[in-house]
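Subgroup meeting minutes
Present: P.N., E.W., G.H.
Scribe: E.W.

1. P.N. recapped why we're keeping a running log of single-chain structure predictions: easier to compare across weeks, and new members can see raw inputs and outputs side by side.
2. G.H. added today's entry (389 aa).
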Amino acid sequence: MRMKRAFLIVLDSLGVGMLEDAYLYGDEGANTLLSIYNTGLLNIPNLRALGIGDITGVEYLKTGKRVASVGRLREMSAGKDTTTGHWEIAGILTHEPMPTFPEGFPKDMLQEFERRIGRQVLCGLPYSGTAVINEYGKEHIRTGMPIVYTSADSVFQIAAHEDVISRETLYEYCKSAREMLVGKWGVGRVIARPFIGKEGSFTRTDGRRDFSLRPPEDNLLTSLMSCGLDVISVGKIKDIFAGVGITEAIPTHSNSEGIATFLELLRRDFNGLCFINLVDFDMKYGHRQDAVGYALALNEFDACLSKALPVLREDDVLIITADHGCDPSDDSTDHTREHTPLIIYGKSILPADLGTGDSFANIGKTVCSLLGAKPNFTLGEDLTSKILK
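Output recorded in log:
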């Protein structure tokens, strides 16, 4: 049966247990979902009814009879970041990890960026986003120099007070950085981080924007678009794919906005894919080592399923997954190299046990098949023969 609408939701960083090669990344023992469960606050009856507890390694959430096809996926690509994970979901294999700068950015990189924007910069080191503005914010306001920093991820982040450097100018700086950062400097994302407030009470605003590397043209999104199907981006999906293959983009600034948009789109008629990223799990809770906040956020998402599942149409499919892990209870604020969950639900979907798949791209291949589109990529396995009634 051909589906008309597919809703693909990425619970950003909800890993379900370390991959076999996690030791290569310093992530032995990582298990994001288990750490959240161990808070004792997890209340996700809808995900449990769908069958999340039937995924290998998630037996602690097992209930009774499941109603969805479930499994877990390995990441074939090198890395454990947002761009790599989403790209593989869409059928793109990343052979080499995107560069990171644990000792800070090279002097020649910073000098070239300064030359391009016509002003000096502050910092250039790995920092948490809140700590860096607290430490360098006063100097930034005094000098007008933007704050440049990185993290454990493959990112080049630029922070600026909105009263000192406007959002528009900050975005132009990010575009200059994106043009520069290729080859050995080709970070996955350049991120604008505007903030407001006074010293001692600086806060980041909702003006964040991500500027990603342009993905290869052969992927899930372009496959669907070339067949005349809709590809609706919700949240940072458009940024992750640099706009490639997107027919409509709906920006959001929180999980709550993303969830509300999802519920609105369920009532809208379209023909194709709605691709949603819920970023708070990673940005607000995983990186900040906040297992309690993570649990409450997952509870909020689960509650939305009470409204969503009953209104799915006969020719709809809902797919829930993640892009990597970010264990909030380990010794690092970095992403973690983990399996990701795969939950596929719809009125025409069997409650199959999908075991462990060899690539996140199984999702991309399956979405193409369900929507009747020919994939222009080879990575991944089409699961339709296992999941359709």
